[in-house]
Design goal:
Protein name: adenylate kinase
Helix content: 40-55%
Family: Belongs to the adenylate kinase family.
Number of strands: 7
CATH architecture of one domain: 3-Layer(aba) Sandwich
Function: Catalyzes the reversible transfer of the terminal phosphate group between ATP and AMP. Plays an important role in cellular energy homeostasis and in adenine nucleotide metabolism.
EC number: 2.7.4.3
Radius of gyration: 19 Å
Keywords: Kinase, Nucleotide-binding, Transferase
Strand content: 5-15%
CATH class of one domain: Alpha Beta
Largest sheet: 5 strands, parallel
CATH superfamily of one domain: P-loop containing nucleotide triphosphate hydrolases
Length: 241
């Protein structure tokens, strides 16, 4: 279906043309973001995507979209979720394989939320190898526990889009209201210290070994700094790859 360009300003259209021309010369990059809850993955992913002309794959959003569309893999995922089971790694890797096959991902991707353990990393690598691809860089967003607590307990989210705000670090223009839509913001029921500590224990026991698995491809980012400072660290790390 043709897109109605009349809704966009000339400046916006020209900016998009410039962006696409700039993307032509961007080298391919396939990046994994690893970090505990509150480390800033959701904040930095769009920045990386824009800087390097990549597509952003958030596995949670990807699963929900596949279920809503009723794709074959989405149907499998829905059956698992409705029965109270975890969606199998094979289904998730299959969904990632489909997601990165679209033209928007031809220069690569930034993957957020997967892999969570070494077994998943191996399956991801095996799938990419079939395509003649590989992970280029793993960004380890490292943050002290006390900072994570402060970030998580002050977070507010726009449910429809996933946009997140923070009552101290990134407040909305009007407290409790999404900047773009005016919809009410909500606090996720699991954004509390008890759930954070439980997730941190799982992260340390299951996900930390993924960093050893990828070895020399890992760049550790001091993610307790401001978003702009973290983004600059990431830019420097990805220029080295």
């Amino acid at each position: 279906m043709p897109v109605d360009l009349s809704q966009f300003s000339t400046e916006d259209l020209m900016e998009e043309v410039r962006r696409r021309l700039d993307c032509i010369n961007k080298p391919e990059k396939r990046i994994i973001l690893i970090g505990p809850p509150g480390s800033g993955k959701g904040t930095q992913s769009p920045v990386i995507r824009k800087d390097h002309c990549l597509c952003h794959i958030a596995t949670g959003d990807m699963l929900r979209e596949a279920v809503n569309k009723g794709t074959p893999l989405g149907i499998q995922a829905k059956k698992a979720m409705e029965s109270g089971q975890m969606v199998s790694d094979d289904v998730v890797v299959g969904l990632i394989s489909e997601a990165i096959a679209v033209p928007e991902c031809k220069t690569g991707f930034v993957l957020d939320g997967f892999p969570r353990n070494v077994s998943q990393a191996r399956k991801l690598d095996a799938m990419l190898a079939i395509k003649g691809q590989a992970i280029d860089k793993v960004l380890n967003l490292k943050v002290e526990e006390r900072v994570l607590e402060e970030r998580v307990t002050g977070r507010w989210v726009h449910p429809a889009s996933g946009r997140s705000y923070h009552e101290v670090f990134a407040p909305p223009k009007v407290m409790g209201v999404d900047d773009l839509t005016g919809d009410p913001l909500v606090r996720r029921k699991d954004d509390n210290v008890e759930v954070l500590h439980r997730r941190l224990r799982l992260f340390i026991s299951q996900t930390y070994p993924v960093l050893d698995y990828y070895g020399g491809r890992v760049a550790t980012i001091a993610a307790n700094q401001t978003p702009s400072e973290v983004a600059e660290q990431i830019r420097r790390a990805l220029k080295l790859s």
